[in-house]
Write the structure tokens for this entry.
Amino acid sequence: MQRRALFVLTALFCGSFFLTGCGGGNPVPPKKGDGGHEHSHSHAEHGPHGGQVMALGDEEYHAEFVLDDKSGKVTVYLLDKDIKKNPAAASAQEVIVIKEKSGDETITHELAAVDRTTGDMPTAQQFELVKRELHGPIKTELATIEVTIAGKPFTQKIAFGGHGHDH
């Protein structure tokens, strides 16, 4: 009877070891996507403010769009490559621009900086505008964003489905 109990315990231990693997709990390293850049985040996740996220450039930074249907407010947060709040992902601009295409016309919207830092080179990571009419072009990806972060300008189509690029 003791042999049988010992056999069952050994089988359970080996089976659980086999199923869980022998990795010591180390995190999975970032994977290279088909686009050739590393990923340490999921493209399906929302940003830290609950909004839709798109990559800027080759995922050097990200823009998170939060649309408040009740107030009509459009808020854009600038985030780092890992979709985290990070002062390095701030812009020295007082406004960022979203341009929507309406037929043959291009309509420019300026989102003002919120909570700019103080000092010689003030920056901001949050930009806002109350304009419910801008929700449609953003949601349907018929607009572009223009922002400069760390001296590098980004102008690109707003796209959430592919996180701003193809893989």
Notes: The first strand starts at residue 31 and ends at 32. The mean pLDDT is 79. Residues 2-20 form the longest helix (19 residues). The CA atoms of residues 73 and 93 lie 20 Å apart.
